[in-house]
Amino acid sequence: MNSDQLEQFKVIAECESLTKAAETLYISQPALSKTLKNLEAELGCKLFYRSRQKLNITKEGRRLLEYADLIITTIDSAQQEFKCLDDNKRIKILGTGYYLPELLDGYFDGQNASLDLQVIPDDLIPNMLINKHADIVIADDYYLRHYGSQGLEKVLLFQEQLLLNIPSDHRLFFREWIPLNEIQGEPLLYIETKADIDSWIKEILKINRCKLNIGLRLDPLLFQQMRKEIQYSYLVSSSTHLFNDNQQDPKAWKKIRVNALYSNRYIYLWYYKKDFKRLAKVIDLVKNNAVKAAADFEYSRTLA
User: Fold this and answer.
1) Which residues belong to the signal peptide in this entry (predicted)?
2) What is the predicted pLDDT for the residue at 106?
């Protein structure tokens, strides 16, 4: 006797018909009939007797049904308990940046705890963290700046600046910086990727009460193919430098700083102080990868 047999026996008792029970279980009626015969042979008693219209459970069958309910419930409870234990071993990481995989580079090379990694919109971060739906959050402090006194610790990873990427033949190519309101009427290229940058830019536009003029939309592949002919500038995050986003020839393009409220932000790693021991390995790895990315970027600038 095993739990599968008891599950099938329970369905037969509920349906009072082998045909209906087989349909419910998505198995053939002969296979289900064989299971019932094997159970009756093992227990040495009849579990059902047939009437003209249905199967009627016997006294022995009712007793077995009580045990079946208890056994199935116990197995379900055990599975749920051990699933929760496994979930407690998993480290849940939320963030708003496409740079999350790079920050965790190397983590999966060893025998480490499993990770649940999810990119979500900025405005959902506080609720997810405060309600303990995440162990670690990697995001800026725009939405989390009021939660520092609730047992949270934050570690600065890097600074992120909104930039305007300009082709060499563009009239703004020799500028070093530009106010956001000055590019409102400028036709811009929109590359349909990195949704987290989109949410950040949308928040910047909302705060500064600005609108952008999108003159051309391209997916990343088409942009790669057409980049030499493109005359439009486009907005980009400085962290694309840090994490090797080499979508264009650096000699043909120039990035200048965009000045506006919230166009410069700091990306932090957030966690609960009480969980530091359990999360220390991940925290150290993320910090080291952020430092390494920044150092590689500075070195590449000296070679350019």
Assistant:
1) none
2) 80
Model's pTM, two decimal places?
Answer: 0.61
Quote the domain boundaries for residue 133.
92-303
- In eight-state DSSP terms, residue 246 is -
Contact 260, 210 (CB under 8 A): yes
Tokens of 300: 């590449």
Q: What is the domain-level CATH number for residue 50? A: 1.10.10.10
Residue with the two structure tokens 């419930």: 73
Statement to judge: residues 82 and 155 lie in one domain: no
Token pair in block for residue 140: 């800026």
Judge if 59 and 186 occupy the same domain.
Answer: no
Strands 234-237 and 152-167: antiparallel
Find out whether 81 and 68 touch, Cβ atoms under 8 Å: no
Q: Cβ(260)–Cβ(235) under 8 Å?
A: no
301 confidence band (pLDDT: 50, 70, 90): very low
Q: Using DSSP, how many helices (H) and how many strands (E) does the chain show?
A: 10, 12
Residue 147 pLDDT more than 70?
Answer: no
**pLDDT digits over 212-271, tens only?**
888 888 777 777 777 677 777 877 777 665 554 444 555 577 888 999 998 888 888 988
Cα distances (Å, whole numbers) of residue 245 to 21, 209, 239, 248, 249: 57, 29, 9, 9, 11
- Nearest-angstrom CA–CA distance, 215 and 84: 51
User: Residue 145: is its pLDDT beyond 80?
Assistant: no
